[in-house]
Design goal:
Elements lengths: L4 H10 L4 E4 L2 H8 L4 H5 L6 E5 L2 E10 L3 H6 L6 E5 L14 H9 L10 H11 L6 E4 L8 H8 L4 E4 L1 H8 L4 H22 L8 H14 L3 E9 L20 E10 L2 E2 L2 E7 L4 H20 L6 H15 L10 E3 L6 E4 L13 E5 L2 E3 L3 E3 L2 E7 L2 E4 L8 E3 L8
Parallel strand pairs: 1-5, 3-4, 5-6, 10-18
Antiparallel strand pairs: 1-2, 2-3, 7-8, 8-9, 8-10, 11-12, 11-13, 13-16, 14-15, 16-17
Helix pairs in contact: 9-10, 11-12
Length: 405
């Protein structure tokens, strides 16, 4: 479980909420630690978690009977479970069962789940919890269509309302455990970037570099998430797909990349040039770096997201790109790639100690290329800590000497 229990308790108390129901894959993992294969990969799979205000550290999971093996594999067999659907496990009598075998045997002694569907499992959970007049918030983004209305018909005296926004609010401030995972995720990505850059050579394709990058992630125990690795003019495509474009002298190499590590995401960007950069590349890069620095100059707990946006955009304009425009210059990052807050004009969310956000100032010019610097930072009372550790300077290949230790 990654749940910020202290923050969840405070926010639920303020709103007089008795039960919190998570329904999306990200929010189920966040509230229970359970990652369901079906929930993430098979549309229509229902997995829900129910948290009681009185016992936030002891969630109840509604899940497919077929995934009891994942409960055991993830060390969550002590949690309260309601399963649904048919699935068949048999236990061998020909050999002694190991510890995990025995745990699965005990969980799966029934040939099928106790309810017919995830929604009926949720009804069963509410019944077991004695729901009558309670206030319940349900993450509306993952429940089956008509699910909220069905629950309201079954428990007409309870107040059942939508709750995705509340869970996002809880997730906005990270625990120490989350912060350390995010630190590792960001730095794994950094090391992977520099590992594949050490193999850069003329004629290499974007796809080949992406292959090296993603293998470096896997080597460190992370999963590739998104790999925008683009050369030359193609680097202006903000979400460019690595292709057979070949690297040549003078090309920009843009990395906007992320991985998943222990269920948490990273999102960072670095720029290299294969050969000496043109004056235009150098000047434009200096401008976007100036914008990021202007944002860093004012970031601390208590500052509004919109003020950071203004500082960053004006910094890039004053730094040498007077026509610079952006919709946002960053976002929270966590169990989802885009956690709140969004660092944008008009968003007056106040930064709090413990938030983890990405600050970025990309510039995309079709026919020229794209430049981007993006770093992950932890908000502190009097400033911030950069969780990314690599230099933010323009990387010039092939004479670049790597990260200095």
């Amino acid at each position: 479980m990654y749940l910020n229990v202290e923050r969840a308790s405070r926010l639920m108390k303020e709103s007089k909420i008795d039960f919190l129901v998570a329904t999306t894959p990200h929010n189920v993992v966040y509230t229970t630690g359970f990652r369901s294969g079906g929930h993430w990969n098979l549309p229509g799979t229902q997995v829900y978690s129910v948290l009681s205000f009185d016992d936030l550290t002891n969630p109840l999971i509604i899940m497919p009977h077929a995934e009891l093996d994942l409960i055991v594999e993830q060390g969550l067999d002590s949690l309260k479970l309601i399963t649904y659907g048919n699935f068949f496990y048999e236990a061998s009598n020909k050999c002694k069962l190991n510890t995990n075998d025995e745990k699965l045997r005990k969980l799966a002694y029934k040939k099928s789940g106790t309810t017919s569907s995830g929604l009926e499992g949720l009804v069963q959970a509410f019944t077991d919890l004695g729901v009558t007049y309670e206030n319940i918030v349900v993450d509306e983004r993952g429940i089956v269509p008509g699910g909220l209305e069905y629950l309201r018909s079954k428990f007409p005296k309870a107040r059942i309302q939508t709750g995705y926004e509340l869970i996002q609010n809880i997730r906005m401030v990270k625990t120490n455990v989350e912060i350390e995972i995010l630190r590792q995720a960001a730095q794994i990505c950094e090391r992977a970037i520099y590992a594949c850059l050490s193999f850069a050579k003329e004629g290499m394709t974007e796809s080949e570099m992406a292959y090296l990058f993603e293998n470096a992630l896997i080597f460190e125990g992370a999963k590739p998430f998104f790999s925008v690795i683009a050369f030359g003019n193609h680097s202006a495509f903000s979400d460019g797909i690595p292709s057979n474009i070949k690297l040549k002298k003078g090309d920009i190499i843009r990395f906007d990349v992320g991985c998943i590590y222990k269920n948490y995401t990273s999102d960072i960007a670095r720029i290299a040039v294969f050969g000496e950069p043109t004056t235009e590349i150098s000047n434009y890069y200096d401008a976007i770096l100036a914008g990021q620095n202007c944002a860093f100059d004012i970031i601390r707990s208590g500052v509004k997201a919109s003020d950071i946006f203004t500082a960053a955009v004006e910094g890039v304009r004053q730094g040498g790109i007077p026509h610079y425009q952006r919709t946002h210059v960053g976002h929270g990052v966590g169990i989802e790639l885009y956690d709140p807050p969004f660092i944008a004009l008009g968003n007056d969310t106040v930064l709090e100690t413990g938030m983890v956000i990405d600050i970025e100032t990309p510039y995309y010019e079709i026919g020229f290329g794209g430049l981007q610097v993006e770093d992950t930072i932890l908000i502190k009372k009097d400033g911030f800590e950069r969780l990314t550790v690599s230099p933010r300077d323009l990387i010039i290949l092939p004479n670049w000497g790597g990260i200095k230790k």
